């Protein structure tokens, strides 16, 4: 049996496999819903890791301050006096060392890092360390549990 051209065309069209517009729309909606949940969590995870870098740096400063204090009898008033082997955090501005809660560098100190650049919508939050470690009272990151590595919740 010989098929005419129009019969061949219609037979070929019936055998073509493909996706309908409805199927493609459903897939796009599913991807959109997944992205709506995944993107904010990803941004928070990235920001949390950047904050973690600041905590690591401040922990190194705290250790260096304790070594300096054991040798000199006072805490250092400048970062260049400390024996820190770590580079400065890339996403934070390092403040200057100041006297802590007692107002005297002999027995207390304080250092604040301020977030610079885009921070996933959190703004220029701060992280403060003292001779006792993380200072949640004076750190503005304390209000952001989603990105605070020291958050208890």
What does this structure look like?
It is a single chain. By secondary structure, this protein is of the alpha+beta class. It has one domain. It is 41% helix and 10% strand. The chain has two helices and four strands; from the N terminus they run ααββββ. Strand 3 (126-130) and strand 4 (133-134) form a beta hairpin. The longest helix has 52 residues, at 21-72. 19% of the residues are buried. The model has no long low-confidence stretch (mean pLDDT 89).
How would you characterize the largest beta sheet? 4 strands, antiparallel
Order of helices and strands: HHEEEE
Radius of gyration: 29 Å
What is the molecular shape?
rod-shaped
Write the layout of secondary structure elements.
Blueprint lengths: L4 H11 L5 H52 L19 E3 L15 E6 L10 E5 L2 E2 L19
Antiparallel strand pairs: 1-2, 2-3, 3-4
Descriptive labels:
10% strand, 153 residues, 4 strands, 2 helices, alpha+beta
